[in-house]
Amino acid sequence: MAKAHSKTMLAFGDVHIPHHNPRAVEVFCRAAERLRPDLIVCLGDLLDCGQFSTHPPTHGVPETDYVDDLREANALLDRLQTVCDRLAIVEGNHEYRLDRWAAVAAEGRGAYSMLAPRIRLTKGRSKCTYVPYGSADGRYPHYAVNSRIIAVHGWSYARHATKNHLQISQGKSVIHGHTHRADACIIQNIWSPGKVVQARSAGCLCKPIPLYGTGRPVEWVNAFILGYLGRRSDTLYTIPIMDNRCILPDGVEVAA
Ligand SMILES: [Fe+2]
């Protein structure tokens, strides 16, 4: 139960529909239905958009119709919007594949408005903010969760990506996706004694094994972020999803 005047936030990322983990997605939705947050942030790569990749299809992975993937993504957003006040979507590099495809393919320019996630995922939605990927105007795309926290898809995939995010976020806390890992880096805010700034990656809701899996272990984890946003400070948690369940900070189990 959130303190009076504080707001509750959930953040998730890297669903990579159609390569999502249905059980992890279900656990996340049930957690959202239980917590009824003020804000849900999608940290990007909701869609894999493999159909628009310059890479050849991965051998053995069944190909899906992009329109079906869009429908699945919209169904997920619809479900989440019934339990939150506001939805924010930060576009990922996978959704951005559409823009790159449209820029080089003649048929792409004609079909762009029919297919682009930034158009098709927001159509008819109220209380929804969509932040496009990429920066043509020199402004770094991000969603400002409040005056202290920003949400981005991810500036780095490096081993210490989360720590790197904190180093470049210039005193703001930052939540991000992209790495599929669930790391946290919390340091004291030297300008404001007694307070902290932190970077946190949300894990992923896709199958936690890469499509290009070669048998080499990876650190991907199904997880999401829960935040209590106060007037003067924020507390963030990373909630791992263990197969078909998770445990919220108050000890309540949410099962798919
Ligand atoms: Fe990504």
Structure description:
The protein has 256 residues and is of the alpha/beta class. The protein has one domain (7-51, 63-246): Metallo-dependent phosphatases (Purple Acid Phosphatase, chain A, domain 2), CATH 3.60.21. It contains six helices and 13 strands. The chain has helices at residues 22-35, 66-81, 97-104, 106-115, 117-120, 161-168, and strands at 7-12, 39-42, 86-90, 128-131, 143-144, 149-152, 173-176, 184-188, 196-201, 223-229, 234-240, 245-247, 253-255. The strands form three sheets. A six-stranded mixed sheet has the order 4-3-2-1-10-11, covered by helices on one side. The chain has a five-stranded mixed sheet with strand order 5-6-7-9-8. α3 runs antiparallel to α4 (106-115). The longest helix is centred in the first third of the chain and has 16 residues, at 66-81. It is globular, with a radius of gyration of 18 Å. The protein starts with 6 loop residues before the first strand and ends with a strand.
